[in-house]
Write a structure and sequence with these properties.
binds iron/sulfur cluster, alpha/beta, Dimethylsulfoxide Reductase, domain 2, 17 strands, 2 domains, globular, 20% strand, Rossmann fold, 16 helices
């Protein structure tokens, strides 16, 4: 039996880098140590429900994918939130070469990146939070459902260089639409009714800026609780803000996100350190937004016209393009459109030739004409991804994929080279 240490988990966007894996006979995973239940599930269940190729061999599958994409007028290139940075770049190159639409699943990063770029702020990481942050604010996220080790590995419990006692020296505020399970660890918890978000954040901003509780009745906190919250804020030196995806379905999501950016600016304007980090949905949701932004100044929903990017997200997004029957083929990489889009829109995929590259069988793969299995990212395939705080992380594969299964990079590279 061989033991491998410091494996990076690809179970969520935290990419914890401290997993230990025991392997028998070169390729059989027998033990996984250090991961949360989501990480363990990803590794142990990776071979169940594995996608089977639709063609006799991979060369044939790539040839057919090239034919479909080359003859389409406006193909949709979609997915990539669970892909490596290298694959995301290839996806963008394919979309540009064939004048297609490049889009990714809904993500909090689509708001974060352009808004954070607009302001002058030092980009801080989880390590800065761990070492120095004494007040942690969570907005619209239930850690116990999504980012299981955030509190224990990066933010609340661990001891840092300056915060030497960990949990005892950190105050926690949690704000969400319901009393979620992770609120048990919060000193201050606030539940909002949808529609109240801006009002609440504005009141919190004024309380911080004026260093006194703003008068006026509200249902969120009693005056005594507001005073306690303000007292804890005044005692702190570094307030970290984390925001999750519970606002994604809210039509005011952009305004709410902008108000939270202003909250961070207000905190800094009274002389405290602060940072704002999104807790992204998938392992590389951050990369799937950063890379197009770096290349084309747009995080998603890019319509290429004669190789030039057009970014009008309300009309150039995958849902609108499918709804209006504007796309005539689709290449989807490790993403289940049926879970992101209304059924009536996702069903439109049945009417066009669809190519699916992925690890597992999904509703989208079921309706795909061409299915191409890829090796499993972070387990059988390496590459780089962006951790949700924007730090680039290297993934190292530790077992081999079955014969004839290629990495997404190889598949996409061959498709890119093949298309005319
Ligand atoms: S918190 Fe995320 S990255 Fe860390 S072990 Fe769990 S699933 Fe893996």
């Amino acid at each position: 039996m061989k033991r491998i240490e410091n494996i990076v988990c690809t179970g969520c966007s935290l990419t914890c880098n401290d997993l230990v894996i025991d392997i028998e006979n070169e390729n059989k995973i027998v033990n996984v140590w250090g991961s949360c239940s989501h990480g363990t599930k990803r590794i142990k269940e990776m071979i169940t429900n594995r996608l089977k190729g639709s063609e006799t061999n991979i060369e044939k599958a790539i040839e057919r994918a090239v034919e479909i994409l080359s003859s389409a007028k406006k193909p949709l290139i979609y997915g990539f939130a669970n892909s490596s940075n290298e694959a995301i770049k290839l996806g963008l190159e394919i979309a540009r070469k064939i004048n297609g639409i490049f889009d990714t699943p809904p993500s909090i990063c689509h708001y974060h990146i352009p808004m954070i770029e607009e302001i002058e702020t030092k980009k801080l990481t989880f390590e800065d939070v761990l070492d120095k942050s004494d007040f942690i604010m969570y907005f619209f996220v239930d850690l116990s459902n999504t980012h299981l080790r955030h509190a224990s590995k990066y933010a609340i419990y661990p001891r840092g260089e300056i915060i030497k006692t960990g949990r005892e020296s950190r105050t926690v505020l949690m704000v969400d639409y319901w009393e979620n399970d992770s609120m048990k660890i919060a000193h201050h918890k606030i539940t909002l009714t949808p529609g109240e978000e801006l009002k609440f954040i504005k009141k919190l901003r004024r309380t911080i800026a004026d260093k006194k509780v703003v008068s006026g009745k509200d249902v969120w906190l009693t005056i005594e609780s507001w005073l306690l919250l303000l007292d804890d804020i005044k005692k702190s030196s570094f307030i970290s803000i984390f925001i999750g995806n519970h606002i994604l379905t809210n039509i005011m999501a952009a305004e709410i996100y902008r108000e939270i950016v202003k909250l961070m600016e207000d905190i800094m304007s009274i002389g405290l350190m602060s940072t704002l980090i999104p807790l992204a949905e998938n392992v590389n949701s951050m990369g799937a937004a950063i890379i197009p932004y770096k290349m084309f100044k747009a995080t998603h929903a890019i319509d290429f016209n004669n190789g030039n990017p057009v970014y009008e997200p309300s009309i150039t997004n995958a849902a609108m393009k499918l709804l209006n029957n504007e796309v005539d083929a689709a290449l989807i990489v490790e993403s289940d459109l049926y879970t992101h889009l209304p059924l009536s829109i996702a069903r439109k995929l049945k009417e066009i030739p669809t190519i699916y590259i992925g690890e597992k069988r999904t509703l989208t793969s079921k309706i795909a004409k061409i299915k191409i299995p890829r090796s499993i990212l972070g387990i059988e395939d390496g590459g780089k991804v962006y951790r949700t705080d924007g730090v680039e992380v290297e993934l190292t594969p530790f077992i081999n994929p079955p014969p004839s299964i290629e990495s997404e990079k190889t598949i996409l590279k061959e498709i890119l080279q093949g298309i005319r």
